[in-house]
Amino acid sequence: MRKIRIFEHISLDGIIEHDKDYAYGEWTTPYRSAEGAEMLLKSYGPDFDLLLGRHTYDLFSSFWPNAGRFPMADAINSATKFTVTHRPESLRWGPVKSLGENVTDEVRKLKSGEGPDLIVIGSSTLTSLLLAHGLADEVVLITYPVLLGQGKRLLSDQFSAQKLVFADSKITPTGLFINTYRCEGTLGKA
After folding, report:
1. E strand spans, the chain
2. For 23-59, how does the pLDDT look when each residue is reduced to its tens digit (9 = 90+)?
3. How many C-beta atoms lie closer than 10 Å to residue 188's C-beta?
4. What does the pLDDT look like over 131-175, one tens digit per residue?
5. Using CA atoms, how far apart are residues 167 and 172, in angstroms rounded to an integer?
6. What is the C-alpha separation between 17 and 4, in angstroms, rounded?
7. Of 17, 43, 8, 5, which Cα lies nearest the Cα of 172?
8. Phi, psi (5° rounding) for residue 42?
């Protein structure tokens, strides 16, 4: 059985948006380091497939195939990309497979099958869906020492509370915390 592990780059105040169109641009860039990338790749595990929303797939497909040869690029480029999309015929960066019409059923099938862990990077809409249906096994937050105030958040206000249990923490030389939490299910009201 495969695990689903969600990885999210996040500010101290919960902002996950960091693409070029965001008001603060590439706010994650000053904190990148070779040591941090190596720690993150180790956190992904020795072998993994990707579980991606379409927007993240499109962003990644415009970057990773042209990023050059280094361990992170090689691992991401060689992973199978299971992608949520209504346009499967337009998926070009492979190996790639469309998740089809019923995403939760397809993810359940993937999870119960054989293969490497499934890593979710970005893909905030997919993240909410996976957590809401109890399909995620771990959440890994890569927390940056910045406060951004506004921007896209990891989860919407309509999200139901979830219980997480702390599992591990690492810190990079540039001050990023890589915190791993196990998903324990819905948090009941007090």
Report:
1. 4-11, 48-52, 81-83, 96-98, 117-121, 138-144, 162-171, 177-186
2. 787 888 899 999 999 999 999 998 999 999 999 999 9
3. 7
4. 989 999 999 999 999 999 988 888 877 778 889 999 999 999 999
5. 17
6. 22
7. 43
8. -65, -35
